[in-house]
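Dear colleague,

Thank you for sharing your sequence with our group. We've completed the structure prediction you requested, and as agreed, I am returning the results in plain text so they can be pasted directly into your records. Please verify that the sequence below matches your submission; if there's any discrepancy, let me know and we will rerun it promptly.
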Amino acid sequence: MLKRIPVDQAAPGMFVHALDASWMDHPFWRSRFVLQSEGDVQALRSSGVAHCWIDISRGVDVAAAAAPAREDGVDIPVESSAAPVAEPASRQHRVSAPGDSAAPPHRAERLALNAREVVRSLFCQARAGQAISLDHSLAIVDELTAMVATQPGALIGLVRLKSKDNYTFAHSVAVCTLMIALARQLGLAPDQVHEAGMCGLLHDVGKLRVPGHILDKPGKLTPEEFRVMQMHPQHGVEILRRGGQVPDSVIDVCLHHHEKMDGSGYPHGLPQGQISLLARMAAVCDVYDAVTSERAYKNAWDPALALARMAQWEGHFDPSVLHAFVRVVGIYPVGSLVRLASGRLAVVVEHNPETLTAPRVRVFFSLRSGSHIEQRVLDLSRPGEADHIVAREDPHTHGFTRLAHLWQPQ
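Please find the predicted structure tokens below.
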């Protein structure tokens, strides 16, 4: 049985089922846990959380002596759960509605960074032979889902910011975010959107068992090394099943996100009719984030050029899923380098879902003068704007290898 109580009634031995706050706004890694000591209780009371839900079937109840009483001596029951409460408050308190204001960029950045650190913790658990905490995974997906609903452009842009040292963890967060956004674009139900995020978050956990000299090799893998790499989906399934409560869809995506529509993928060479929708979605999100990320052994592809190349890989992706993905990130995704009719170079800072060929861009360089110019943001979809995109450009061709400062939120 669940009860919602003020945190000043919390006591050691209680099982906290959920907190009425975002997972970013309290000091506990888990959203469900036992209050082990007075120190835990004090941390909860000083966290700024006003109420929490306790499960009295898994921990102690509010002491009768601590409960308020009526003047006639009849106990006033603590507020109980009249309606089912199966989800943490973090999934309930942010509801996207027309007119909602977007979250500030710094919050999106903070969320992306914090999510990477939690993924690092999850993967460290797995490397140590422990079961992955689904509570942690659920909390991350809750927050990313809410942020994608309110500020998709900022977060999808931010997940592209990775260092060579944190790539594995940042890639998991990025694919999770892209899966959530793609599921929303495909019109999937809210539960399926959340499920898609979980699949993205945990799809590559098997790479923990791939030796580092293979995972980060600066060159083509030998046939034997490639066979080792191809084992990571099975390794991931073994790691996920250790927990015993991972949804079947997450297992399926972990195992099959490298399958291809023409049957040439791995590990099972499935034909397109046997590849689930979520696995087809993960194939697109995984490859896009991988090729647009800087690695120790390769340069990042420009996002727009990456989409163009992916569209040419016949038999690799589900065309309908890839088309939906383009609507998520734009024909010219955030971070793309483009040439305008005016002879200026610009970086895309926000795509326009209604007019995919007319995003907002930041101009910074003149091809005519061969020099940097005063930076200015143009909305190419604005009525009366004469300039327009005439071509994608490869940043490396022009010697621009560091453009993140031009497109990331200010």
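Summary note from our side: The chain has a mean pLDDT of 82.

Kind regards,
the structure core
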